[in-house]
Amino acid sequence: MEEKRKDIYIREHEKEGMSYTEIAEKHGVSRQCVHQACTFEPKHKVKPRACIFVNLRNWMNDNCISKTKLSEIAEFSYTALDRYLKGESDAPKRFIDKMIELTGIPYETLFIVG
After folding, report:
1. Whole-model pTM above 0.70?
2. 31: left (phi over 0), alpha (psi -120 to 50) or beta
3. How many CB atoms lie within 10 A of CB 101?
Protein backbone atom coordinates (compact mmCIF):
# COMPACT_ATOMS: atom_id res chain seq x y z
CA MET A 1 0.00 0.00 0.00
CA GLU A 2 1.13 3.52 -0.75
CA GLU A 3 2.83 5.39 2.10
CA LYS A 4 0.65 8.16 3.56
CA ARG A 5 1.69 11.79 3.09
CA LYS A 6 1.82 12.31 6.85
CA ASP A 7 4.15 9.32 7.26
CA ILE A 8 6.39 10.54 4.43
CA TYR A 9 6.70 13.99 6.00
CA ILE A 10 7.42 12.55 9.45
CA ARG A 11 10.03 10.14 8.05
CA GLU A 12 11.76 12.89 6.09
CA HIS A 13 11.76 15.21 9.09
CA GLU A 14 12.68 12.80 11.89
CA LYS A 15 14.80 10.17 10.17
CA GLU A 16 16.31 12.09 7.27
CA GLY A 17 16.72 15.39 9.14
CA MET A 18 14.94 17.55 6.57
CA SER A 19 13.40 20.82 7.72
CA TYR A 20 9.69 21.53 7.31
CA THR A 21 10.57 24.07 4.62
CA GLU A 22 12.70 21.58 2.67
CA ILE A 23 9.94 18.97 2.82
CA ALA A 24 7.33 21.54 1.75
CA GLU A 25 9.39 22.63 -1.25
CA LYS A 26 10.06 19.02 -2.25
CA HIS A 27 6.37 18.09 -2.23
CA GLY A 28 4.90 21.38 -3.43
CA VAL A 29 2.94 22.12 -0.26
CA SER A 30 3.16 24.83 2.37
CA ARG A 31 5.50 24.65 5.36
CA GLN A 32 2.43 24.87 7.59
CA CYS A 33 0.94 21.81 5.90
CA VAL A 34 4.07 19.79 6.69
CA HIS A 35 4.23 21.11 10.26
CA GLN A 36 0.61 20.21 10.91
CA ALA A 37 1.03 16.76 9.40
CA CYS A 38 4.03 16.10 11.64
CA THR A 39 2.59 17.50 14.87
CA PHE A 40 -1.21 17.54 14.64
CA GLU A 41 -3.30 14.91 16.37
CA PRO A 42 -6.96 15.23 15.47
CA LYS A 43 -9.30 15.64 18.41
CA HIS A 44 -12.25 14.16 16.59
CA LYS A 45 -11.71 11.10 14.48
CA VAL A 46 -14.33 9.71 12.14
CA LYS A 47 -16.29 7.27 14.28
CA PRO A 48 -17.58 3.85 13.18
CA ARG A 49 -21.21 5.01 13.14
CA ALA A 50 -20.23 7.92 10.86
CA CYS A 51 -18.64 5.66 8.22
CA ILE A 52 -19.43 1.96 7.92
CA PHE A 53 -16.51 1.30 5.56
CA VAL A 54 -13.63 0.50 7.90
CA ASN A 55 -10.78 1.05 5.43
CA LEU A 56 -12.21 4.30 4.11
CA ARG A 57 -12.71 5.47 7.70
CA ASN A 58 -9.12 4.51 8.56
CA TRP A 59 -7.83 6.38 5.49
CA MET A 60 -9.83 9.46 6.49
CA ASN A 61 -8.45 9.34 10.04
CA ASP A 62 -4.87 8.67 8.91
CA ASN A 63 -5.01 11.62 6.50
CA CYS A 64 -6.95 13.95 8.85
CA ILE A 65 -9.85 14.19 6.40
CA SER A 66 -13.23 15.00 7.92
CA LYS A 67 -16.51 14.23 6.21
CA THR A 68 -16.83 17.93 5.42
CA LYS A 69 -13.39 18.01 3.80
CA LEU A 70 -14.08 14.77 1.93
CA SER A 71 -17.32 16.19 0.52
CA GLU A 72 -15.37 19.21 -0.77
CA ILE A 73 -12.55 17.16 -2.28
CA ALA A 74 -14.88 14.60 -3.84
CA GLU A 75 -17.32 17.28 -5.01
CA PHE A 76 -20.38 15.66 -3.42
CA SER A 77 -22.87 17.42 -1.21
CA TYR A 78 -22.27 16.78 2.47
CA THR A 79 -25.76 15.30 2.87
CA ALA A 80 -25.32 12.80 0.03
CA LEU A 81 -21.82 11.84 1.16
CA ASP A 82 -23.04 11.36 4.74
CA ARG A 83 -25.78 8.97 3.57
CA TYR A 84 -23.30 6.96 1.47
CA LEU A 85 -20.77 6.70 4.31
CA LYS A 86 -23.42 5.61 6.81
CA GLY A 87 -24.84 3.07 4.36
CA GLU A 88 -28.23 4.78 4.42
CA SER A 89 -28.37 4.90 0.62
CA ASP A 90 -26.54 3.15 -2.18
CA ALA A 91 -23.51 5.03 -3.42
CA PRO A 92 -23.43 5.77 -7.16
CA LYS A 93 -20.57 4.53 -9.32
CA ARG A 94 -19.24 8.09 -9.56
CA PHE A 95 -18.81 8.18 -5.76
CA ILE A 96 -17.13 4.76 -5.67
CA ASP A 97 -14.75 5.71 -8.47
CA LYS A 98 -13.87 9.00 -6.77
CA MET A 99 -13.09 7.29 -3.44
CA ILE A 100 -10.84 4.75 -5.19
CA GLU A 101 -9.07 7.58 -7.03
CA LEU A 102 -8.57 9.65 -3.85
CA THR A 103 -7.43 6.83 -1.60
CA GLY A 104 -5.55 4.61 -4.04
CA ILE A 105 -7.18 1.63 -2.31
CA PRO A 106 -8.83 -1.02 -4.53
CA TYR A 107 -12.61 -1.46 -4.37
CA GLU A 108 -12.46 -4.90 -2.75
CA THR A 109 -10.48 -3.48 0.18
CA LEU A 110 -11.89 0.02 0.43
CA PHE A 111 -15.54 -0.86 0.85
CA ILE A 112 -15.33 -3.54 3.52
CA VAL A 113 -18.08 -2.97 6.09
CA GLY A 114 -16.96 -3.20 9.67
Report:
1. no
2. alpha
3. 9
